[in-house]
Amino acid sequence: MSVDELVSPDQLRGLSYETASLYGMPHIGCKYTSENINATAFDADDYRRCACCGKSGVPHNRHHEPPRSKGTFLLETPMGKFVLLPALIDLCGSGTTGCHGQRHRNNLKIRWKWDSPEFERKWWNGYFLSRPWHKPNGSWLWDYGCYIFEHAGRVWAYRGRP
Fold first, then answer.
1. How far apart are CA 159 and CA 78, in angstroms?
2. What angle (nearest 5°) sits at the alpha carbon of residue 69, between those of residues 66 and 72?
3. CB 75 within 8 A of CB 82
4. pLDDT digits over 66-80, tens only?
């Protein structure tokens, strides 16, 4: 199934498929504390590790993916309209240092990959989000896909925390 068969240009609202695909995906080590894109917090667990390199015990930042400057995304589907926030990802460093800096310099790439074309279709047609127990950015998404990280010639999958 091609992207053109899944998503119309109108549905993407001027964004690339890759960028739009990151809205509403699960958080890694962070969360929103309200519907406000600026209201964020780290998870209250002691598993504080960079999602990219695994470092702990160093300064971390909550990275918005796509960047916060792009705002929210309105996904219009046959099953309803859904306001999606960027995923929050715990990365070491700041916007200029560590893995967070690597992401801002585009040396670290992050994308979402569905486990099957069927799951991808159910996202874009609104089926998943129309279910009351399927909230955007929820951990339930780990059952259907994973993040793909690319950095310094390495490519690896990241599939949620235990």
1. 29
2. 65
3. yes
4. 988 899 999 999 999
